[in-house]
Write a structure and sequence with these properties.
By secondary structure, the chain is an alpha/beta fold. The protein has a single domain, classed as Maf protein (Alpha-Beta Complex), CATH 3.90.950. It is about 35% helix and about 25% strand. The longest helix has 18 residues.
């Protein structure tokens, strides 16, 4: 079963493939055709659906996409949907350094990663939203993962998301939860056709 994964982010592609194959080993995620669309939605759901709609329209194949980011309570939910370019650039290091700078001296460090995984196909549109609660650490730690992983300490852990193995992270992360649920939905949909 070929499904377009609407992302040009190699780290995300690798993560999503590993997560979805656990649920549906027969799935084959293919590259999107064309350029990435402008993500001008007002929510994670809006942006995930924008990407999936364009990929479906371009390919004619079922298309999946996600939009995700970190929401920090003390920053009024920022970076939120602007997580990928919070510093004004698409630069993971600059983005997380800006969060650390804005969190300096704050005691309320609660945060959550949010992921909305969406599908658009001949059956319509569906989206799943999942949260991974934790807190912003005071400094970066670990070399795994990507994005804000080095400064995010998940609830129940004394280490950052970047210090978890890929398998540990995928088992509990926002993206792991959302794409496992989406894979179950798709498997049920297509295996019954």
């Amino acid at each position: 079963m070929d499904i377009v994964l609407a992302t040009h982010n190699a780290h995300k592609r690798e993560e999503v493939e590993a997560i979805m194959r656990e649920v549906w080993p027969e799935i084959r995620l293919v590259e999107p055709q064309g350029e990435a669309p402008e993500e001008d939605g007002q929510s994670f759901r809006d942006n995930a659906l924008i990407k999936a709609r364009v990929a479906y329209s371009d390919s004619g194949l079922p298309a999946i996409a996600d939009d995700s980011g970190i929401c920090v309570d003390a920053l009024n939910g920022e970076p939120g949907i602007d997580s990928a370019h919070y510093s004004g650039e698409r630069d993971d290091t600059k983005n997380l350094e800006l969060v650390l700078e804005r969190m300096a001296g704050r005691t309320d460090r609660a945060a959550a990663f949010v992921c909305v995984a969406a599908v658009v196909d001949q059956f319509g549109e569906d989206a799943v939203e999942c949260h991974w609660p934790g807190e912003v650490a005071t400094s970066r730690a670990g070399s795994g993962g990507f994005g804000y992983d080095p400064i995010f300490r998940p609830d129940g852990f004394e280490m950052s998301a970047a210090e978890l193995s890929a398998e540990e992270k995928n088992a509990i992360s926002h993206r792991g939860q959302a794409f496992r649920a989406l894979a179950q939905l798709l498997k049920g949909r297509y295996e019954s056709v």
